[in-house]
Inverse folding.
């Protein structure tokens, strides 16, 4: 190896080290926890806004489907009360005595 080859190899090695240092610095900046948290929050917020807009647009296009879904949701939450309305009611409020007086005896008293 000549001195020129050694100098050229050292220059290439120095350039490679400089590129590697730049890559490491960029990775450290990209992987900073606060930055990752900000990026994640922004993505979640944007995704939530897109879903909300799409849902609102679908509700405007299909109000009947929205009303049906709302009705089903209310029915789900109130299912016990609704079932109670349709159950057969027992007449346990006033018990009828078995040995009651005859109507004529009640009138005479």
């Amino acid at each position: 190896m000549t001195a020129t080859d050694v100098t050229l190899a050292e220059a290439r090695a120095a350039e490679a080290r400089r590129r590697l240092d730049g890559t490491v610095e960029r990775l450290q900046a990209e992987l900073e926890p606060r930055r990752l948290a900000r990026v994640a929050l922004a993505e979640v917020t944007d995704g939530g806004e897109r879903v909300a807009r799409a849902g609102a647009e679908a509700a405007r296009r299909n109000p009947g489907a929205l009303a049906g879904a709302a009705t089903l949701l209310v029915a789900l939450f109130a299912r016990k009360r609704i079932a109670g309305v349709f159950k057969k009611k027992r007449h346990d409020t006033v018990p009828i005595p078995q040995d009651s007086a005859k109507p004529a005896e009640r009138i005479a008293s």
